[in-house]
Every structure is written in C-alpha cells, then in structure tokens.
Design a protein that fits this description.
Blueprint lengths: L1 H14 E6 L2 E7 L3 E6 L5 E6 L12 H8 L12 E4 L7 H5 L14 E6 L2 E8 L4 E8 L6 E10 L5 E3 L1 E8 L8 E5 L1 E6 L15 E3 L2 E3 L5 E3 L9 E9 L5 E8 L4 E8 L5 E8 L5 E8 L7 H7 L1 E2 L2 E2 L2 E3 L4 E12 L9 E5 L2 E6 L4 E6 L5
Antiparallel strand pairs: 1-2, 2-3, 3-4, 5-11, 6-7, 7-8, 8-9, 9-25, 10-24, 11-21, 12-18, 13-14, 13-17, 15-16, 17-20, 18-19, 19-25, 20-21, 22-23, 26-27, 27-28
Length: 372
C-alpha cells in the first residue's frame, strides 16, 4: 500500500505542477498544447496560454499586473482572472453585511480542498459556511487538446428551496485586451444597459434595450461594443440574453493582430445571461468581463428576486432543499488563420469544436473529445 501511495503521489506531481501566480498558490495543468493555471484558494483560472506561443500571451485579467505596470492602485481584492460568483453576484444588503457576507458570494474567497487528482484532472470542493452550501468543481484537459472542461455542482445544505445567484466571472484584461485590436462576439439576443446614475464616467445610456453589438450612447447615437474604444476612460455594464434558439451558446474574445482567440461554449439552460463589464481606464488598465450566469445584472439577491424576469426569462435559478444543481462549460484558446476577424458561430459536433468567420470564409476546428 505504501508503494502504491508513493507511485500515485509521484504521478500526480508529474501531471500537476504546484505553481505560484502573483504570490498566490496554484496548480498548473499542461495538455501539451495549452497550459492552465488555477488557484487553490478561490479556484480562479488566472492563466491560459498556448505551449507554442513564445510570447505566452495570457487572455485572463490580472489586476495585480495592471497596477504594477501603470503605477495605479490594486483595487479588486480577491478578484482575478476567471473566478466563480457563488452563491451571490453583486452587492449585498445591510443585513447580509452585518452577518459577515461579502459581495459576489463566498466561493472565490474560500480555500479549495483538492479532493482527487489524476492525469490532467483535478477535483475541488469548497464549503461555504455562511451560505450553508457546498461547491464542487472538476477540471479536465485531454492530451493534445486546447480545451478545458469544467463541471460544477452546488449543494444546498438547508431544508428549504432558495433562489441561487451563480455567475462565471470570466474576465479578460490587458495586454491581451487592447484598444481597437481585441473584439468580443457572442451568441446573444436582446440586451439592456445596466441602470446607472452616470457615475463612474459612462459612455452608455441607462436602462436602454438594444441588440448586440450596437448599444445606445448617453447622447443618443449608437456605438459598436465589439472593440475597446480608441480613447478609454469609462466603465459600462450590459446584460444580454443568450440566444434562446440555441442549446449551446458562446462568447469569444479575439486579439486580431495576434491571431489569438479565447472563448467559452456553455449550455444556455444553465447560463441564460451574459453580462459584459467594460472597465476601460485611461491609464491603460483594461478589463472586460465575459460573465455568463443566472442573472442579467450584478445586483443583490433581493433585487434579482424582485426583478423576477427580464425579457420573459428568470433572473435567478432555484436551488431546491437538500439538493444539488450542476453546470458544465468548455473554455478554449487557439490561433486563427489570416483574415479571421469575427466569430459568427461556435458549435460542437462529434468531438470537434468548429469556429467560423463566415464573411471571411475562415474556419478553425479544435478537438473537444469530452464534449459538452
């Protein structure tokens, strides 16, 4: 038994290398095509790079790096990369604050226990003591693929049904996110700008419906949201309904000049909303949330319940008593061919992920053998 345990420990050490990212502990998975770094406290995905990329350009938002390079403050605490907001997405009530709860839920602030490890696979769990929930997540990669498979489960430890707020706070940042060179596409339908009072500096009008990507500006005209504006200095927020005609929906970010595409494919039934948080600071600290989840805006639990629905679609998901709800999504990173400037479709069939720019007649195909 001792020999078997030593062999298992040695295999795990080879497959998953402990790393440090911005003075935070994590693990690194390497499929031979792509590397993923995930933190062991909070479970954030903080780096994904292609092995063949000499520049190692990482799409994930790193506010620590941004503050270091711009000389500005590091204002986002535990928030970094792609982190999960469970259970809660947005501000809290005064009663919740008095009870010790913080914004964006508990999961991304808790230590994540490693339950099991295998070759290119790790399973975590995190107890949420204030919310009386248990969150579990399994990450998988496959040798030779550029896709990460993410399975999650949220368990209600209480004996009553409750409204759950769950968002995958996927966020891209500079240097991958660059003015007029990074574009975002998504399979969305109706959208609405988040209600606001003009602060901080806004480009977009408050609480106005629109069709992505053309959103209403404060002065009445429209602006195409796909790219970061040439002159940053604003922060805006939109909520879009994922295309109700699709079973699987997508959001992607393309750094056109680098020919590097990052994206997600997920089940619309589990994540019906896409929020985009566009934080474009004048000093070049750029961040853009590609936040798919159960609600259209980052508002309190009480507000989502009072909202009920937007565009006829619920603004929260029920977590039944003593029960579990689950989700699954894919995350991918790839090069694109010359002339590829826009993602019109991402679909999965027969273990192949197909990404299309229809106008340019360009297609990328990635192996995705574990499916969705």
């Amino acid at each position: 038994m001792r020999i078997q345990a030593l062999l298992l420990a040695a295999a795990v050490a080879v497959a998953q290398k402990p790393v440090e990212f911005e003075q935070r502990q994590g693990l690194q998975l390497d499929s031979g095509k792509a590397e993923l770094t995930v933190l062991t406290r909070g479970g954030a995905f903080v780096s994904m790079t292609l092995n063949e990329d000499a520049e190692k350009l990482n799409p994930m938002w790193n506010p620590v790096r941004a503050a270091r390079e711009t000389g500005g403050p590091q204002r986002f605490g535990d928030s970094i990369g792609h982190f999960v907001c469970v259970d809660g997405f947005g501000p809290i009530s005064k009663e919740e604050a008095a009870a010790g709860l913080q914004g964006h839920g508990e999961a991304h602030r808790q230590p994540w226990e490693i339950v099991s490890q295998g070759k290119l696979e790790v399973q975590f769990q995190a107890k949420l003591p204030l919310l009386h929930e248990m969150f579990r997540r399994k990450l998988q990669m496959v040798e030779g693929e550029q896709v990460v498979y993410v399975d999650s489960e949220l368990e209600n430890l209480l004996a009553f049904d409750r409204p759950a707020n769950w968002a995958e706070h996927g966020t891209i940042g500079s240097p991958f996110l660059a003015t007029e060179r990074t574009v975002v596409d998504a399979s969305v339908g109706q959208c609405q700008t988040r209600p606001h009072n003009g602060q901080p500096p806004r480009r977009l009008a408050s609480e106005k419906e629109f069709q992505y990507p053309n959103a209403p500006l404060l002065h009445g005209s429209l602006v195409n949201l796909r790219a970061v504006p040439a002159n940053p200095g604003s922060m805006d927020h939109t909520g879009c309904l994922m295309d109700p005609a699709r079973e699987h929906v997508f959001v992607t970010a393309l750094r056109v000049d680098k020919k590097l595409l990052f994206g997600y494919l997920f089940r619309r039934a589990e994540y019906p909303w896409l929020q985009e948080w566009m934080n474009y600071q004048k000093d070049g600290a750029l961040a853009r949330g590609l936040e798919f989840g159960t609600q259209p805006f980052d508002v309190s639990r009480r507000q989502t319940v009072e909202m009920g629905k937007l565009f006829g679609v619920p603004a929260f998901r029920w977590l039944p008593a003593k029960s579990k709800i689950t989700t699954r999504f894919l995350m991918f990173l790839t090069r694109v061919p010359d002339g590829f400037t826009k993602v019109d479709d991402v679909r999965l069939s027969g273990g192949v992920l197909t990404i299309e720019d229809k106008a340019a007649g360009r297609t990328v195909k990635l192996a995705a053998s574990l499916g969705l």
